[in-house]
Design goal:
- The complex is a heterotetramer, with two copies of chain A (about 220 residues) and two copies of chain B (about 230 residues).
- With about 220 residues, chain A is an alpha/beta fold.
- Chain A is built from five helices and 13 strands.
- The radius of gyration of chain A is 17 Å and the shape is globular.
- In chain B, α5 packs parallel to α6.
- Chain B is globular.
- The chains are: A alpha/beta (about 220), B alpha/beta (about 230).
- At the C-D interface, α3 and α4 of C face α4, α5 and α6 of D.
Chain lengths: ~220, ~230, ~220, ~230
């Protein structure tokens, strides 16, 4: 079973040389920590920076330089700042190759819900709806079950949607799953996790091939 | 000769703001928000306001200050998760809230300033954001029709500016400010430093002065940090 | 009767303190020469400059700094450069208070034709259609008659239109005319020009008040 | 680590350009045109091209060079008045020409790059530009629906650039270049000066590198002036 860093590490393996990547708040943010040294990859944060670097050294933080999670950050050589319209032109115009974001629910048809729980305080969708509606390549990073123990991989989302039919791949603490032809397809299992336990933890239709390799996380 | 937009301070800059008006306020989180104008709006006590701003501040800063005084009737935002008073007013029904995808919010402000009354975007298709909106397929993909946003007053905050209203922003404090500057009937810009005309390189100006009607140098900036994340040395 | 400079001089009287003004190619360009010293007025050129100054001194011309007529120009203190999308955002969004442009024909309903003569080489509309469709305040600067001697102020335009119902005022070598309620209204006559000669030179419906003052051009 | 876009020169930058493709070319008149890329396209002899560019050059420079060699099948422009060979080919029917209002052309390129498939504009309503296009009233004023433009290759010219593809333009040579950079499937940027990564201030970059796939420093720039207007000293 993977912890949050393990999920981020596995997702980092999906990132290709030359890609611009948008990382959502939470587990997705951690992905940046596991990109191999020297790999040509740039991180976009939708509040207006391309070429986001690590957190600043203590005392160097600048209130004017933050990421979409409102965290203080730094800029790498070659970085650029821009306004919100230009930022979403990049996203909507599919100039960003990969979007990684969290979810409350994912359905076997690729629907995603991650912004609203009826009756509870609604925080808003932020940039998530623009990201999922536009990205060619969306990976969801999340726990396989919610805090109540219920599966987050469903036949149909029960919560208000963020986007329809857009998720291609999900990486959880238990497995890597692809979404195609209206079903989840088990691709890899987390170290030490059995196929049976993944089947049990998945509420939506799950296609299991004869051989399911274990993830290689160094 | 350049058209002079400079006014003495926030009081003169906010002249004409009335209860019931629609205001735009730049910033993302607490980054790049028009601090001095917000303080002046609190002081004036105008209420029944519709505020268009990506976020709603925190309890004791930014738009939270206007919420505390119940000056806002309706918020149009993309994310409002950092404010308990906001939550209370929203759940009790005192505050009307219209949530808009962040990219659509930015583009709708730009459209308002650019004389484009409506445009199609894929964002929000199939969600409650699309309810009541026209859906049309382009290149085999469904899009929804979004309309332009404008405001009676737009309040933006820049790093540097000149008397002609030309603005330069710093780092990610740029965010929504340029689009909102375009969309205000009267756009008020507050700047950390008002520099002499001709000092800003015409090549490096982010917001041309034509979009700004009033400009002043703020007396003081808090520039609070919401999430101070650092590496220890 | 006015020459081209006279027309420009008369139009300059229409310009108000604090206005951004777009001047078309030809007579309109001359208007800039007659703005009173010290008046706060800025000229926008739609290829991407606000704060256009006079032609450069010999030897100072810069191929990268031109106006919409492709002429070398200078920038005044407070000037700013921008891209074409931003430029037309200013125009379409009605941030420019006055547009002055030439015309081949103007109709008594405010229609304007200034870009195409069927059968002849078509040069294109450039920014004219955006300007006339958006400007709140459009003044046409032109000769009252074309080179063949025919009136350019018509009941209906015969040439392909540039914009519909948009012209509010016309300044010609003979007169100042307003367009309202589907007719031309004679406002002023050029020095030494009789009302009769204006009536004769105007093909469209012309409303003539009892008293028609002569322009004051110093 | 920054994504490197630099290539050796125009030959490498134009790799993959084929006859029949749609190209965008930045510039207004002869100001800010991709001189070196145009020379390379002439050399390659690709033809049957659709070229989207505000103007069509002059007889012996800019796009005029491609017209001379009959490499262009169709021009999409707003103003084409400075070119005799263009006139000849157009009147004889050899060349197809689509004329678009300048503001709509700029906005359609931006829309193509920004994932906005269509938008409404008042420009061209009631004229032949509106023929076959949807008309809709907004705020009591008729508008027409215009669609996004994209290109297989976009060629832009900047003043300075870095290996990450970040671009800075000079004065009015900016014009259509930023929007076309956004709208090319492959965007080729040629620059007068390729500067080391980190040299350009992230605050002052006009076109973020994400929009640029290839960049090179041009060997030589003519930068011809169409209308040399000066005051005598």
């Amino acid at each position: 079973m993977l912890d949050k860093n393990g999920i981020a590490k596995r997702i980092a393996q999906e990132v290709r040389e030359g890609w611009y990547v948008n990382l959502g708040i939470g587990i997705p943010t951690l992905v940046a920590n596991f990109i191999p040294e020297g790999m040509e990859v740039e991180f976009q944060s939708e509040n207006g920076i391309l070429g986001m670097g690590p957190f600043p050294m203590e005392g160097d933080e600048d209130a004017d330089l933050i990421n979409a999670g409102k965290q203080t950050i730094t800029a790498r050589p070659g970085a650029v700042y821009f306004d919100s319209a230009t930022s979403f032109a990049m996203i909507r115009g599919q100039h960003v190759q990969l979007t990684v974001l969290g979810a409350m629910e994912v359905a076997q048809n690729g629907d995603i819900a991650n912004w609203k729980i009826p009756g509870k305080m609604v925080k808003g969708m932020g940039g998530a709806m623009d990201l999922v509606a536009s990205a060619e390549n969306i990976i969801v990073a999340m726990m396989h079950a919610n805090r109540a123990g219920a599966s987050k991989l469903l036949s149909t989302c029960s919560l208000p949607l963020t986007g329809v039919g857009c998720v291609k791949r999900v990486v959880t603490n238990l497995a890597v799953l692809d979404i195609k032809d209206g079903a989840f397809h088990l691709v890899e299992r987390a170290p030490g996790v059995t196929v049976e336990s993944i089947v049990e933890a998945t509420a939506g239709t799950l296609i299991v091939p004869d051989y399911v390799p274990e993830m290689r996380i160094d | 000769m350049a058209i002079t937009k400079s006014v003495n301070g926030p009081e003169a800059a906010c002249d004409g703001v009335k209860s019931g008006m629609t205001l735009m306020l730049g910033g993302f989180g607490l980054c790049g928000i028009p601090e001095c104008s917000i303080a002046e709006l609190v002081k004036r006590g105008v209420d029944d306001l519709t505020c268009i701003s990506n976020n709603a501040g925190v309890d004791d800063f930014g738009l939270g200050l206007l919420l505390q005084k119940r000056q806002i009737r309706k918020m149009i935002s993309s994310y409002v998760g950092e404010n308990d008073e906001f939550e209370r007013q929203m759940l009790s029904g005192e505050l009307e809230v219209d949530l808009i995808p962040q990219g659509s919010l930015a583009e709708r402000c730009r459209a308002g300033g650019a004389g484009i009354p409506a445009f199609y975007t894929p964002a929000g298709f199939g969600t409650e954001v699309a309810e009541g909106k026209e859906v049309r397929d382009f290149n085999g993909k469904p899009h929804i029709l979004e309309s332009a946003l404008t405001a009676d007053f737009a309040f933006v905050k820049a790093w540097k500016g000149d008397a002609a209203g030309n603005l330069v922003f710093k780092a990610t404090a740029r965010n929504f400010n340029p689009m909102m500057a375009m969309a205000g009937t009267i756009t008020v810009a507050e700047v950390e430093e008002l520099v002499p005309l001709g000092t800003l390189s015409p090549n490096e100006i982010h917001t041309p002065g034509i979009f700004v009607q009033r400009i002043f140098q703020g007396a003081h900036y808090d520039k609070r940090i919401e999430q101070r994340t650092v590496q220890t040395r």
